[in-house]
Write a structure and sequence with these properties.
The complex is a heterodimer of chains A (189) and B (236). Chain A has 189 residues and is α/β, with parallel strands linked by helices. Chain A has a single domain, classed as Methylesterase CheB, C-terminal domain (Rossmann fold), CATH 3.40.50. Chain A is 33% helix and 20% strand. In chain A, strands 3-4-2-1-7-8-9 form a 7-stranded parallel β-sheet, sandwiched between helices. Chain A has a two-stranded antiparallel sheet with strand order 5-6. In chain A, strand 5 and strand 6 form a beta hairpin. The termini of chain A are close together. In chain A, 49% of the residues are buried. Chain B has 236 residues and is α/β, with parallel strands linked by helices. Chain B has 2 domains: 32 residues, no CATH class; 191 residues, Rossmann fold, CATH 3.40.50. In chain B, the strands form 2 sheets. Chain B has a 7-stranded mixed β-sheet. In chain B, strands 3-5-4 form a 3-stranded antiparallel β-sheet. In chain B, strand 7, helix 9 and strand 8 form a beta-alpha-beta unit. The longest helix of chain B has 15 residues. The N and C termini of chain B lie far apart (48 Å). In chain B, 37% of the residues are buried. The model of chain B has no long low-confidence stretch (mean pLDDT 90). Classes of the chains: A alpha/beta (189), B alpha/beta (236). At the A-B interface, strand 6 of A face loops of B.
Chain lengths: 189, 236
């Protein structure tokens, strides 16, 4: 695979965005996807279960020290930061909130950029704060591919706008466009 | 990085030489690396389950000893004290709250917290099944609050390092939430062995919602009291 992992950051408007994206990704999609979605600290795992029922790919909450496997989707659990270690395992922490958020998109993206360097795709979707901006910047600095949702098509434009103001993304596309691109990239050797 | 800026170093190299030569500075630096983030009634569902599933067991004992391992600045130890008080158990309870970070322990002992967190803590408390008015447990003063003396009386704050120190008491309950996620598998096993040796038969082990014993050497030694909230009971 040209790219070995995809990290996605999504905040308000995320429920619809995730539903759309995972209804479109096919069963044989191989690149692992690791996601931070801002969600209430006290929410239970029901949302991930619901999404899993609608998806062709297995979706689960990340577990501590879990090995990242191809063809799987991992969500950060509520009230934990999710990080990727150099040995491609997932790790959870309860460190301070970053950008008022735990989990924080920046924390995931920055650790993923260090672990995967130019083998990483970073995706910033709909949201109404600037979490993820520093993270996507780091993805680019480490040679990864930066994709940002077109703010005009996002339920909440602030987060994609903030990312676009900080970096020059490789692609700015609608949600459907991003999903198609990911499928194409997934097939590349 | 924060310590680096605070101490006026321009880069890591400068700090490194100081770390190697200045013992006091090195010790302060280590404390910075330890985790000090905690909340009162973090994960309200856990406290609710503790009330429902653990308290009835504790009520059968003439006295109760609880070890809160890795207590950091004490928010969770005070949460447990509040819960026990409301359940009429606090008078016969001793809470050993331990951490290896002396600075955090001193802060915990003082029981002074930032006022701006209280709104969130109150919401947590109510979600956890709290029975009283949360503001009765502290006194507000400008930007800070101080926890009531009556909640402090049965907490023993002590320095204990989970990695290098050994069993110090036989206890009925161990709370160690979101500490083990920072340890590798070998260390986790070692600490789990320490917990197992410290618990009475039928004793209760409470871990963080993303921690478990399934993958440790002691998986067979416990029954699940509440699988989701990671509350385990040591087998007889």
């Amino acid at each position: 695979m040209r790219y070995e992992a995809i990290v996605i950051g999504v905040s308000s408007g995320g429920m619809n965005a995730m539903k759309v994206m995972f209804s479109l990704l096919p069963k044989d999609f191989n690149t692992p996807v690791i996601i931070v979605q801002h969600i209430g600290a006290h929410s239970d795992s029901l949302w991930v279960k619901l999404l899993n029922d609608k998806s062709n790919l297995p979706i689960k909450e990340a577990d501590e020290k879990e090995k990242i496997e191809n063809g799987k989707v991992y969500f950060a659990p509520p009230n934990y930061h999710l990080l990727i270690e150099k040995d491609r395992t997932l790790s959870l922490t309860v460190d301070e909130r970053v950008n008022y958020s735990r989990p924080s998109i920046d924390v995931l993206f920055e650790s993923a950029a260090e672990a995967y360097a130019d083998k990483l795709i970073g995706v910033i979707l709909t949201g109404s704060n600037n979490d993820g901006t520093n993270g996507i910047k780091r993805v680019k600095e480490c040679g990864g591919l930066a994709i940002v949702q077109n703010p005009e098509t996002a339920e909440s434009a602030y987060m994609p706008k903030s990312a676009i103001a900080a970096i020059k993304p490789d692609y700015i596309l609608s949600l459907e466009g991003i999903t198609e691109l990911l499928i194409t990239l997934d097939k590349q050797k | 990085m924060n310590r680096m800026n605070m101490s006026g170093f321009e880069n890591i190299d400068q700090m490194q030489s100081r770390l190697l030569t200045d013992e006091v500075f090195a010790s302060e630096f280590l404390q910075d690396l330890s985790i000090k983030v905690t909340e009162m009634f973090r994960d309200p569902d856990f406290y609710r389950s503790f009330r429902e599933n653990v308290i009835p067991i504790l009520k059968t004992y003439p006295f109760v000893k609880i070890w809160h391992a890795g207590c950091a600045t004490g928010e969770e130890a005070y949460s447990v004290a509040i819960l026990l008080q409301e359940e009429g158990l606090y008078d016969r309870t001793t809470i050993y709250a331990t951490d290896f970070n002396q600075q955090a322990l001193s802060q915990a002992k003082e029981g002074i917290f930032s006022n701006k967190m209280m709104k969130e803590y109150t919401a947590n408390y109510q979600l956890s099944g709290g029975k009283e008015s949360f503001s009765d447990y502290y006194i507000s003063n400008y930007d800070s609050v101080i926890i009531n003396k009556s909640l402090k009386r049965n907490i023993v704050w002590a320095n204990h390092n989970l990695v290098t120190d050994s069993v110090f008491a036989e206890v009925h309950v161990i709370l160690c939430r979101n500490v083990l996620i920072y340890f590798d598998k070998n260390l986790q096993n070692k600490v789990q062995r320490l917990f197992h040796d410290s618990l009475i038969n039928g004793g209760i082990l409470c871990l963080g919602s993303k921690e478990g014993i399934r993958f440790t050497d002691l998986a067979e030694e416990y029954a699940e009291l509440d699988k989701k909230q990671r509350i385990f009971k040591k087998k007889y």
